[in-house]
Amino acid sequence: MSKVLIIGSGGREHALGWKIAQSPEVSEVLYSSGNAGTYNEIKGRNIETSGSNEDLAHLIESENIDLTIIGPEQPLANGLVDFLNSRGYYKVFGPTEKAAQLESDKFFSYRIMKELKIPQADSILCKSLDEAIDAIEKTGFTVIKARGLTAGKGVTVCSTKEETLEIVEKHSEQYKDKDGNYHVLIAERLYGQEFSVFGISDGKIVSPLEISLQDHKRLLDNDKGPNTGGMGAYCPVPIASKDLVRYVANKIMTPVIQKMRSDGIEYKGFIYAGMIMTNKRLRVLEFNVRFGDPECQPAMMMINNGLYETISLALEGKLNRPKINFKPGASCCVVLASQGYPENYKKGLLISGLDEVNGIGNVKIFHAGTKLDYSNRIVTAGGRVLGVTAYSEDGIGEAQKLAYYTVQRINIDGGFYYRRDIGSKAL
After folding, report:
1. How far apart are the C-alpha atoms of 385 and 10, rounded to whole Å?
2. Is the same domain home to 296 and 377?
3. What count of Cα atoms within 13 Å lies in the side-chain half-sphere of residue 371?
4. Domain limits at 131?
5. pLDDT per residue over 272-300, tens digit each?
6. Among 64, 229, 317, 374, which is 20 to 30 Å from 397 by CA?
7. Is the domain of 319 the same as that of 209?
8. Where a domain ends, among 282, 306, 326?
9. Cβ distance 207 to 362 under 8 Å?
10. What is the pLDDT of residues 286-336, one digit of tens each?
11. For residue range 185-222, what is the model confidence (pLDDT) as tens digits?
């Protein structure tokens, strides 16, 4: 029996731990530091830590952890895997700091794709605001992509050259690096349906989760308003069949992993490809080096079993026989956010209705920005608070109905904000 540590406190980490705990090979799932939802999970236990590398290493040693899974991108980009490996802990699932450049450095990923002739948006790599302005003037490109980690919010899509020029200066102030530099890709705008492909890499190949997902990044219905960390997701996506998912894994993701390996950078961990189907061809929008949030939530609802076992095989470099299998049907996740998200929002608001909805079949409430107050009540602790996730074997229409039926029974003072159209593109 294995003891698993999940590092992170969001909805993604709650969903991963919930699914991994279902394996008969797992005795306990620890969360550092978790949230109010993980606190109440079967086999779950929250451990408060500072999040420092030393504290996490001490936790792994003191609790005799058999497998560590790193959820968020920041500790991966900061080299947590490297540090734990240096302390003798090798059962750590996630890419090293160099491998994490695939997400943390858009110049790095752009150059790899260009060398491999993987279709992507035409882009200009700029190392100052002046270079960015010059690129916009010369090309008319209207997408601004910050280099570095931006919590999923560093891409600004504009409609005209004039709007792009107006916004890029504000963007440069927001996304300067620690040395005060502004590095950015100015890219062409692509039009089409987007979908996500997630896979697990053992350093040699990528085994896909054979189900496509679609995130909803914009705050408002019909993809309006500012970018957020994600307001909901569903799966599968009608335009992206299992065959297309396998194609992305075999012809795009695996070549990238193998190219990195040939350059001396081994990649073991989750890998995500954000794709867009234009009227001309399939193209890559971005790579991420972890599972998406909130895409993880409906994906975990669709998995029957085998996640823990497949991760274990990946760490051993033996992914030729993955063990994950999926349910039929579809899943829909609606994110409940505090009013004012993604800017200013209140914390500490009492959440009502959770006991009532816990009895609804085929629904799981994954917690993100929650905590327990001094009276052991569940209150808000972040912008994105809950991911109401429903499953139906009858498809996305029924899963969507069930998710929104549940959403209407959960509340806080002032009301949650949520999109009303998660999954509607599939219908």
Report:
1. 9
2. no
3. 11
4. 122-187
5. 999 999 987 899 999 999 999 999 999 99
6. 229
7. yes
8. 326
9. no
10. 999 999 999 999 999 999 999 999 999 999 999 987 789 999 999 999 999
11. 999 999 999 999 999 999 999 999 999 999 999 999 99
Range list of β-strands (E), 267-329: 268-277, 282-288, 303-305, 325-326
Residue 116 lies in a domain: no
Cα 319 to its chain centre, rounded Å, is: 22
101 in any annotated domain: no
The answer to whether 416 touches 389, Cβ cutoff 8 Å, is no
The span from the CA of 103 to the CA of 256, in Å, is 12
Token output for 134: 């010059």
Q: Tell me: do 310 and 204 sit in the same domain.
A: yes
Q: Do residues 103 and 287 touch, judged by C-beta distance below 8 A?
A: yes
346 and 314 housed in the same domain: no
CA 336/CA 297 separation, integer angstroms: 13
The beta-strand segments (E) located in 141-215 are 143-146, 155-157, 184-187, 193-202, 206-208, 214-215
Q: What tokens were used for 91?
A: 């059962």
Tokens of 238: 């009608």
For residues 338 and 322, membership in a common domain is answered with: no
Look at the chain and report how many structural domains it folds into. Answer: 4
Q: Hey, what are 340's tokens?
A: 């004012």
The model carries a pTM of 0.94
355, containing H or E segment: helix 354-357
